[in-house]
Amino acid sequence: MPGVRAAAAAVAFLTRVPVGRVVELDAADVARGTALFPLVGAGIGAVVGALADALAAPLSPPLAAVLAVGVGAALTGALHLDGLADAADALGAPTRERALEVMRDHRIGAYGALGLLFDVGLRVTAVAVLAAHGDALRYCACAACVARVVPVVLGVALPYARTSGKAGFAAAAGPLGTAIAVATALAAAVLLRAWPLGLVPVAAVALLAPVLLRWLGGVTGDVLGASAEVTEAAALVLAVALT
Asked: Which H or E run contains 41?
């Protein structure tokens, strides 16, 4: 069944859940699965938020947040964190060509380390505040959901920056898949009573699209992953402001 295979592909792409060992998946399944990225993101965020809320009382909100964010990173295989580190290191490159080369080198430099430190520190702090108010579950689920729509939209809207290869799911979703992803993210923001977070991916796409076009001439897998990571962090900051 195409729908089941698409869902399995979305889970396999975004997490370490070994569904690929049960269902044999191909590129077409991943292409269809991009429409479900926000839904899978909501599941990831729900795990992080539920764990933070559950552990806040016995352990303290800060310690609960550290453990919950760590579990989230393990669940995703640090997929977007890896993209963030590579993209951050490329910021120091003097030319577009050098930036693309840096992103192929998975060794972490100073910019990448600082980017990870800032992102994880911000995320842990935000989740701790939300857990202290008992709101981590709904806000983490919503933030992770809306963040996953950004790489889908950017992948469709912008060209691939490299002259060879492919950007994973870039441009794979198509108009229908993109519409489903956007609708899912907006619906989640409303249903979880966190509708302002639905504005964050809109702002992220509006800001990142022209920057990526000027900087790289398009997108790569790393910048798509980084876009999701940055958007989720921004959504969590907004969630703290709303509590």
From this structure: helix 37-59
